Amino acid sequence: MKAPVFDKTGKEIKQVLLPKEIFGVKMNTDLVHQVVLAQTANRRRVIAHTKDRSEVRGGGKKPWRQKGTGRARHGSTRSPIWVGGGVTFGPTKNRVFKQKINSAMRKKALLMVLSAKAEANSVLVLDDFKLEAVKTKTLAKLIEKLPLDGKSALIILPAMDKNIILSARNLPKISTIQGRELNVLDVMTFKYLMLPQESIKVIKETLWHS
After folding, report:
1. Up-side HSE of residue 185: CA atoms within 13 Å toward CB?
2. pTM of the full predicted structure?
3. Do 143 and 204 fall into the same domain?
4. 30 FRET partner, CA 20 to 30 A, in 2, 111, 133, 171?
């Protein structure tokens, strides 16, 4: 499997051979689906939370005496049947949505989606991809010269590159990630993968030592 290599002018200067063990893996949609579900569940933030009667403020004093008033007996104004009381069976922040997925499955699924991107000609290798300063306009002009057709793209960096990360932050449809942090969900979210040649080596070393 080969991928085109582009320079800073957007010109294709050569083609590079992609490692078969990374970009030549047969797809298993069931496995990829399982890993994506686990990842989305693990990223889910539990926001909705209602207080039960033990969490609602007040209600320490018995509203009225137990007998002799002719009214129903109550022990606290924080009971769920009182206005301002706790909520019964409401959503709480104690809910756990996390799913466990073993590293072998996660690694295999990542190889599959990378292979699918390569097969769809959605992998663009970049030659000498560096920025001397944080400049969104410079990065935007460089990206415009690449055959992305206005689609979204994920820049896979070989290491932390503050200039590129900050420059890409305000660009729509563009995001960055380090090769060692690559995952199935991010790869599938974007149409194209843009990676300097050094990133291929980083991805290979990360997957083979993880």
Report:
1. 11
2. 0.81
3. yes
4. 2
